[in-house]
């Protein structure tokens, strides 16, 4: 059975000190919250995301490229995971990314995305703990507000997390098939075609 890997042995996306200690303390002794690590591909990161939406298989090279792209933008992308200490596997995940504005006195907005909890640990309020941690990180790095999108069914949950319903979301999907993605990549300059294409949230 894999042994728990301490943070100091990992290449992490951001400084673990940004994760609030009070949230960490509420997880339980069998769980640990930390930033995403470069090798979390092998700790079931993508399997947990499949609880949320369609998630493709990635090679180690693809996963590493995506991780390095996120890390190359300091104070912008904050993906955290919850680790089962007994198995050293990811059982929860969530992200917040920071958007620089020209309005609001050059303010910054935090966008929460991709909250997912493995079925084996659902019912332990881990989704709430992830939201609390991401909101705190967003505030600590200087955002004036934190926003997210959710289904109508999840509105009560996010209201309990301190969020308010504001306006509506509109979406227009692009590059939703492999053929469309290949065609778009062929038409773009190489510097753009190397960027990851967006996949719709289902």
Automatic annotation (TrEMBL):
Presence of the UniProt keyword Endoplasmic reticulum in the record: yes
Entry-linked Pfam families: Acetyltransf_1
Location(s), subcellular: Endomembrane system; Endoplasmic reticulum membrane
Residue ranges constituting the N-acetyltransferase domain according to the UniProt record: 31-189
EC number: 2.3.1.4
Keyword hit for Transport: no
SUPFAM superfamilies, alphabetized: Acyl-CoA N-acyltransferases (Nat)
Residues making up the signal peptide according to the UniProt record: none
Membrane topology classification: Peripheral membrane protein
GO cellular component: endoplasmic reticulum membrane
Gene Ontology terms: biological process: UDP-N-acetylglucosamine biosynthetic process
Reaction catalysis annotation: D-glucosamine 6-phosphate + acetyl-CoA = N-acetyl-D-glucosamine 6-phosphate + CoA + H(+)
GO molecular function: glucosamine 6-phosphate N-acetyltransferase activity
Domain of life: Eukaryota
Main localization (coarse): membrane
Alphabetical keyword list: Acyltransferase, Endoplasmic reticulum, Membrane, Transferase
Pathway: Nucleotide-sugar biosynthesis; UDP-N-acetyl-alpha-D-glucosamine biosynthesis; N-acetyl-alpha-D-glucosamine 1-phosphate from alpha-D-glucosamine 6-phosphate (route I): step 1/2
Family: Belongs to the acetyltransferase family. GNA1 subfamily.
Subunit and interaction comment: Homodimer.
Protein name: Glucosamine 6-phosphate N-acetyltransferase
């Amino acid at each position: 059975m894999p042994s728990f890997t301490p943070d100091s042995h990992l290449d992490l996306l951001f400084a673990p000190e940004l994760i609030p200690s009070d949230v960490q303390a509420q997880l339980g002794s069998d769980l640990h919250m930390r930033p995403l690590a470069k090798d979390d591909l092998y700790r079931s990161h993508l399997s947990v995301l499949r609880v949320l939406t369609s998630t493709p298989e990635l090679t180690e090279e693809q996963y590493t490229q995506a991780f390095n792209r996120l890390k190359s933008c300091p104070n912008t992308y904050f993906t955290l995971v919850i680790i089962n200490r007994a198995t050293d596997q990811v059982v929860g995940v969530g992200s917040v990314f920071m958007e620089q504005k020209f309005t609001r006195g050059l303010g910054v907005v935090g966008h929460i995305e991709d909250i997912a909890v493995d079925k084996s640990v659902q019912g332990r309020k881990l989704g709430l703990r992830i939201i609390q941690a991401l909101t705190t990180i967003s505030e600590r790095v200087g955002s004036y507000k934190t926003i997210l999108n959710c289904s109508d069914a999840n509105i009560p949950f996010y209201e309990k997390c301190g969020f308010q319903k504001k306006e509506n979301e509109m979406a227009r999907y692009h590059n939703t098939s492999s053929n469309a993605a290949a065609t778009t990549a062929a038409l773009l300059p190489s510097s753009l075609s190397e960027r990851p294409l967006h996949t719709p949230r289902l």
